Amino acid sequence: MPEPHPPLTGLVVVSLEQAVAAPFATRQLADLGARVIKIERPGSGDLARGYDRTVRGMSSHFVWLNRGKESVQLDVRSPEGNRHLHALVARADVLVQNLAPGAADRLGIGHAELAAGHPRLITCDISGYGSTGAYRDRKAYDLLVQSEAGLLAITGTPDTPSKVGLSIADICAGMYAYTGILTALLDRARTGRGTRLEVSMLEALGEWMGYAEYFTRYGGAAPARTGASHATIAPYGPFPTGDGQSVMLGLQNDHEWAAFCTTVLRRPDLLDDARFTGNADRVRHRTELDGIVRATTLGLTADDLLARLDEARTAHARRRTVEEFSDHVQLRDRGRWAPFDSPVGELTGLVPPVTVHGRTTTRLRPVPALGEHTGSVLAWLAEPARQSQQGAAACPLI
Predict the structure, then answer these.
(1) Lowest mean pLDDT among 21-30, 148-157, 228-237
(2) Which of 84, 230, 316, 373 is catalytic?
(3) What's residue 208's pLDDT?
(4) pLDDT digit string, tens, across residues 107-152
(5) What is the pLDDT of residue 390?
(6) Which residues contact 375 (CB under 8 A, 6 or more apart)?
(7) Whole-angstrom distance, CA of residue 154 vs CA of residue 158
(8) What is the pTM for the complete model shown?
(9) Which of 28, 78, 95, 292 sits at 20 to 30 Å (Cα–Cα) from 177?
């Protein structure tokens, strides 16, 4: 039996993208089999290509975000480059862009200009703050959006507000763009019409700030910055062991608290302590509670503590380094690492996190060199425009 096509085989995505948010969205589409044509600035390309040189001379960000795409160098502001851009858009099912504010309209690829001539086209505009409002023309980078969204106010220690260690504003905007595009494809399959999607980093991250905003709006104060602990659950966070290690604990309810007291702390008397009756009480008396828990954990090795936690079925984790994550036994047991090609040779990466059972593991496609596909894509443009039967059969959303 032939191997089934990836679900988005035959779909054409044209993306004018930089850095993280849009490339993250389109890489998910590429992993599902879409043909993603990445338009890059001649000579330098996507600015993420220059972030670092840690992957055998390539940027770690670029390798992560651009696997499975075709790179086309185009000066889209020149007459010839702009003609090629519009020819690509005419062949596309989806157009994605996270250019500077107003740039898409100046290039003639704003949705309003394209809608009449390309009624089935799905456009997705990703920006920092949206196309309207007081901030519409502001440049936005991840740290700035984390700050504007209030994330720094609840992240870090009491003395030091901290950014999240990943580009979380970009990533969440990219995820909403990705899911929005899939939704628009389903809608087009039903109605025959494309649509315009708009995703702002501030609004995407704002959705992820939901609990903190409700907590603050109706509770009168923001969740406290508590380092690696949880602001509104206790005990929850890192605790030291007698052999110099750190184990993360996470208790979610009173049933778990009872098992934790009895089996891990071996202090059943704490169940009758009014300071710790419910989670709100335990949070209110966090300092005393953490001291009691720490007194027990410091008297145990990490292995002994983990054995007690397993016996009590208390959620826990080791605090791993990135190197230890790369060698995580769970990922190895599930075969989650796979090779893929690149201009600097074979590399290894995680396969997409959604497992579609009944299909073979997704084949990871190469990372493109700058302009690697310019010739082949322009040659494709010179062919008569037609919908291939293979593509139509493989992707019913086309």
Answers:
(1) 228-237
(2) 230
(3) 96
(4) 999 988 898 899 999 999 999 999 999 999 998 999 999 999 999 9
(5) 44
(6) none
(7) 9
(8) 0.89
(9) 78
CA distances from 47 to 43, 62, 209, 338, 339 (A): 11, 9, 29, 26, 25
Query: Which residues neighbour 271 within 8 Å (Cβ) at sequence distance 6 or greater?
Result: 257, 258, 261, 262
pLDDT of 36: 98
- CA separation for the pair 65, 284 (Å, rounded): 43
Residue 230 annotated to the active site: yes
**What is the number of residues in the chain?**
398
Q: How far apart are CA 111 and CA 114, in angstroms?
A: 5
Dist. CA 118–CA 124, nearest whole Å:
14
pLDDT of 389 higher than 50: no
Hey, what are 138's tokens? 């502001």
- Residue identified by tokens 């919908």 is 387
Residue 362 contacts residue 3 (beta carbons within 8 Å): no
The string of DSSP codes covering 101-158 is: TTHHHHTT-SHHHHTTT-TT-EEEEEESS-SSSTTTT----HHHHHHHTTTGGGSB-S
- In angstroms, the CA 394 to CA 392 distance is 6
Q: Where are the alpha helices (DSSP H) in the chain?
A: 21-31, 60-65, 79-91, 103-106, 111-114, 142-148, 168-191, 201-208, 210-219, 254-259, 279-284, 286-297, 302-312, 322-326, 329-333, 374-382, 389-394
Average pLDDT over residues 391-397: 59
Specify the 3-state DSSP secondary structure of 314. Answer: coil
**Rounded to 5 degrees, what are φ and ψ at 154?**
-115, 10
Amino acid at 48: A
pLDDT recorded at residue 52: 93
